[in-house]
Write a structure and sequence with these properties.
5-stranded parallel beta sheet, alpha/beta, binds adenosine monophosphate, globular, two-stranded antiparallel sheet, Rossmann fold
């Protein structure tokens, strides 16, 4: 497989991006750059960016392009990403995608492959409703499809699992609407660049992962 690979994981909330990212981290040590995680970390630290982002995230809307581009730019050129990275939840608008291309080309970098995980809205809604997180490690579970060994508790630490505020039903529909309106146009954008790989996200996580790995093996060195 090509070293120093740059991947985008694209898909609606609940499509399984996080699950696949965890698998890629475990097997290949890729660095995951999740703008959602970065923003949640900023909120819990009480930074200026966190304070600006909180009410927007709670409503299921998108944080401004300037803010997310700023936090991603700081990370993609850091030493931790020298061996490659996968972007999870970024870009989410055409403006973000165009800016990312510009930032990368200034440094002679480019995105190698964009995995689009396709799932219908009703499945995404069911998956999100069951999602629970262990805050400190980022480990995720699903009470229906991937339950913890002890209800409500992290398998490793035994600490409490929580549901994200924006995973609550009233907000999820709004996040999906935002996805269809603002993020789905990226499918065409990356199709035109010839780097989009669409994957059926309704199958088992193992089968999806196998398809991702096969594509990664075919990325030219
Ligand atoms: P996620 O964890 O990827 O589902 O992101 C949670 C929330 O963070 C989203 O619903 C947005 O409010 C915000 N967010 C994350 N990534 C972005 C982005 N690339 N652009 C704008 N807002 C974002």
């Amino acid at each position: 497989m090509k070293k120093n690979i740059h991947i985008i994981l694209l898909g609606p909330p609940g499509c399984g991006k996080g699950t696949q990212a965890q698998k890629l981290i475990r097997e290949f040590g890729f660095v995951q750059l999740s703008t959602g995680d970065m923003l949640r970390a900023a909120i819990s630290k009480g930074t200026e960016i966190g304070m600006q982002a909180k009410s927007i995230i709670d409503k299921g809307e998108l944080v401004s392009d300037e803010i997310v581009i700023g936090i991603v730019r700081d990370r993609i050129f850091s030493t931790e990403c020298e061996c490659g990275y996968m972007l999870d939840g970024f870009p989410r608008t055409l403006a973000q995608a165009e800016k990312l291309d510009q930032i990368l080309s200034d440094r002679n970098q480019k995105i190698d492959v964009v995995f689009r995980l396709c799932v219908p809205d009703d499945m995404a809604i069911r998956r999100i409703a069951g999602r629970r997180f262990h805050i400190t490690s980022g480990r995720s579970y699903n009470i229906e499809f991937n339950p913890p060994k002890i209800e409500g508790r992290d398998d490793i630490t035994g600490e409490k699992l929580v549901q994200r505020e924006d995973d609550k039903e009233e907000i999820v529909q709004s996040r999906l609407n935002t996805y269809h309106e603002l993020t789905e146009p990226l499918v065409r954008y990356y199709q035109k660049q010839g780097i989009l790989k669409a994957i059926d996200g309704t199958g088992s996580p193992e089968n999806i992962y196998a398809e991702i790995k096969q594509t990664l093996n075919e990325v030219p060195a």
